[in-house]
Specification:
Number of domains: 2
Strand content: under 5%
Order of helices and strands: HHHHH
Helix content: over 70%
Radius of gyration: 27 Å
Oligomer: single chain
CATH superfamily of the largest domain: Cytochrome C biogenesis protein
Length: 144
């Protein structure tokens, strides 16, 4: 009889421990996601400081918005879209890849190709063509 009571208490203790542990991990998970996302966002009132690192009123409001939206189940991409629509693309440290700034993303590769083209024309040897194809292949692999 006493042993049966012990097992009941033991099972209840284990189940409650598991329940509260998962709840704690869920809270930590949201806090980690808020930290990760706010480190990618720029504070509009500070000088190029992330929202996570800033103590400005604006950044505290954005932290609350991000936490509420994550608790509602929205994805990080949706939250970024919402913030970009509201505050502009300047709020992101890494600009989005769209047709407005495709030149920004492709410019380094264009410079690399033009530079390699001039190297090939200057040297006009078989060895230069081999180097040209190797660099072109590497540039292609990096862009993928």
């Amino acid at each position: 009889m006493k042993l049966n009571h012990f097992f009941r208490v033991f099972h209840i203790t284990i189940l409650s421990f598991v329940f509260f542990t998962f709840k704690t991990f869920a809270t930590e998970n949201i806090d980690e996601r808020v930290k990760k996302l706010t480190l990618e966002l720029r504070c509009m009132t500070c000088q190029n400081q992330s929202i996570y690192d800033s103590d400005a009123e604006f950044s505290n409001d954005i932290k609350k918005i991000v936490k509420n939206k994550l608790q509602e189940g929205e994805s990080e991409r949706d939250i970024k879209k919402f913030l970009v629509e509201r505050y502009g693309e300047y709020i992101l440290f890494r600009p989005l890849m769209n047709y407005n700034n495709i030149f920004l993303w492709s410019f380094p590769f264009i410079l690399l190709i033009i530079g390699l083209f001039f190297v090939v024309i200057k040297t006009k040897t078989k060895k230069a063509w081999t180097i040209y194809f190797v660099f072109f292949y590497l540039a292609y692999m990096v862009s993928q």
